[in-house]
Amino acid sequence: MLAKDSLLRNLKSGLTAILLTSLLLAGCSPGSKENTPEAKPNDGGKGTSTAIGSSYPLNTTETITSWEILNMNAVTFYSNLADTPFGKALVDQTGVQVEYIHPNDQQTAEQFNLMIASDELPDVIEYDWTGRSAGSYPGGPEKAIRDGVILELNDLIDQYAPNLKKKLEADPTLDRMVKTDSGKYYVFPMIRNPSGLVFRGPMIRQDWLEELGLPVPTTIEEWEKTLIAFRDKKGATAPLSVTYTGGNFEIRDAFIGAYKTSNSFYVDDEGKVKYGPMDPQYKDFLALFRKWFAEGLFDKDFALTDTKALDNKILTGQTGATVHLLSGGMGKWMDAMKEQDPKFKLVGAPYPTLNPGEIPFIGQRDFKYNPGPSKAITTAAKNPELIVRWLDYAYSEEGSLLYNFGIEGESYVMENGAPVYTDLIKNNEKYSLQQMVSQYSKPNGPYEADERRNWNTFPEQDEAVKVWAKTDAEKHILPGFLTPTAEESKELGKILTEVSNYKEEMFVKFIVGKEPMESYDKYVEQLKKLGIERAVEIYQSALDRYNSR
Fold it and tell me: So what CATH class is 14-37+44-193+367-451?
């Protein structure tokens, strides 16, 4: 009971747990949004164009402040992006000094909320502004603009971002993704390449399967049999484990999708928006994981498992299966074990279904616009033109090479007109490709990912993408960049905050056995009282408007 209570307590966040955020912001005085909310987006920087210039490096002595997550692999080497080879090269090539403020990876949402509430903002913030999830800006971009937090970018892009403007004009689909229904651009977007849309899924120890004479599981029944074998014959203390960070259960829709529902909002076969955690069949998923938890098949400490904890469980043989990233998971772990245990092998497993031969209802598949690593300019920015020109560099040919491949002659060379990683990156004796890439380039951020960039170091990774892509996800995933109206956003923000907190609290209680499954109907009724049906209506309207853009 004490262990279960500990799990629940650790899921509850409060201001007392995040007051240390102020230390991250100390010494940074980007200006208060209170002083600038009425400023017109294209007023800042007027009359400075000639002084700054339009070619790189720009002529400036100003420093930009940027709030963004530091890649988890880069943390191995540096505590600040400015100190990395990429950060230094970006200054050299753009002429712009940047002061980076990095939130704690495990408390990003809390620290973001505290920063917004403090009324002290940096010049740019790399974050999810869509308002869709509990971690993104409540109410979405229309509300963020109306609240005087970020700037509308239409005029700024039109005047000072020729590289991004060209890409938006050439791709109408992308263009409608990165603006609101009222036509307001609000971020400099992360643009995925077509081969980078699928990068997460179920993975399992192939060497254990071979040793036990078991096939790669495809159904829930096969998965249970496999996890039992891992527990009983391999001594795995957490046969299946996943990260649970920032209120996000990183199993996403694996296993949940077997019951033709989702762990969040989704689109059903008739094109209607639904909220998975209130579906009748979602109860079946909870019952399954409650059973697996009780039987020691699912990690007893799942609610406390962050990235470092999962790394340890995978690499020490405590865990034989998970749902995680292609490079930051499968590639990283196989690389770490290639000398210590040459037999160690992970392979991608299909998203589980209830019956053999079924096409998985849903899985991980993203859109070309990635909201999370996209940058918005805040109303605290004193020189928006400088910031826009700095951001636009990433979409230029030279900037794209830096953001994707790093520094020519060090991290990559040109061969037959194409960038190719050097041995320093791909054959480093001490560090993985992912670790080296994180120092010399920006794995995620506001730029267009290059189709020629491939971080896979094992054939199993290439095969995993093919396996994970065989789902109906494209049909059922709700776009993460819908934009409710300002009025809807205000209403939605309140609903989602309360719904998400309650849903996560009950999710853990159901799984660990502190809440009887007979309470499921009461749980659904409480979701309705908190306004979940209204949230579904808002998203349906937003989806309809998006489809009509």
Answer: alpha beta
